[in-house]
Amino acid sequence: xxxxxxxxxxxxxxxxxxxxxxxxxxxxxxxxxxxxxxxxxxxxxxxxxxxxxxxxxxxxxxxxxxxxxxxxxxxxxxxxxxxxxxxxxxxxxxxxxxxxxxxxxxxxxxxxxxxxxxxxxxxxxxxxxxxxxxxxxxxxxxxxxxxxxxxxxxxxxxxxxxxxxxxxxxxxxxxxxxxxxxxxxxxxxxxxxxxxxxxxxxxxxxxxxxxxxxxxxxxxxxxxxxxxxxxxxxxxxxxxxxxxxxxxxxxxxxxxxxxxxxxxxxxxxx
Length: 270
Hints:
With 270 residues, the protein is α/β, with parallel strands linked by helices. Helices cover 37% and strands 17% of the residues. The protein has eight helices and eleven strands. It has helices at 15-28, 62-77, 119-128, 146-164, 184-190, 219-227, 230-234, 248-266; strands at residues 3-5, 33-38, 112-116, 131-134, 137-139, 172-176, 178-180, 200-204, 207-211, 215-217, 237-240. The strands form three sheets. Strands 1-2-3-4-6-11 form a six-stranded parallel β-sheet. A three-stranded antiparallel β-sheet has the order 5-9-8, covered by helices on one side. A two-stranded parallel sheet has the order 7-10. Helix 3 (119-128) links the parallel strand 3 and strand 4 (131-134). The protein is globular. The N and C termini lie close together (10 Å).
């Protein structure tokens, strides 16, 4: 099984420390870590990064800082040697010349995902050779339904990937909230028309966003709805979001219901 983590907000992270931590985690997990990183979701506080000792240089934004830090992070997990060694070290250096961060975990570089909310950042991620993680919030770029805009984002990502000339195939994930109504508890929690609601549009963090709908219906109806979701069809990985406040047992029931009543009809594999 894969070990999935992310996406941490890179505006709060030192890229070199993150490189050491993620390489160590990947080695502990036997090379199974799938790590998502991103600029970060809208904050609960104003300029929260400042409480952690970070700020943007004159003329730059924290989005600029995040992208620069991400490029550094990708270089050093890929083995870049950049640190001038002490001529009188406490312990012998493993080789002459500049040193890299330690530990190194071969293969991790191809298992980094970028959490993208726009076509432009999806294309940027493709150029840098990161997999695409697209959630249930996206910058509204056309007024089209969320799943259509997300499918267009995936197409733009794949086109940019091909143009960049990488020699391996990326992965693309989308996130959905899906609740098959198969028990009285399901109908009590989610059976009051919530799953029939459409997308939501609004302003958040300085841009107009589109929020994807939740899916909640009897299994047959759910299968029909999900077949029409263009972004799910375009992606190769579906991440299921669950309401953690309802507890482990209930969420295990939701996942089991999806695997039993929905996934087989849509050809999904766990």
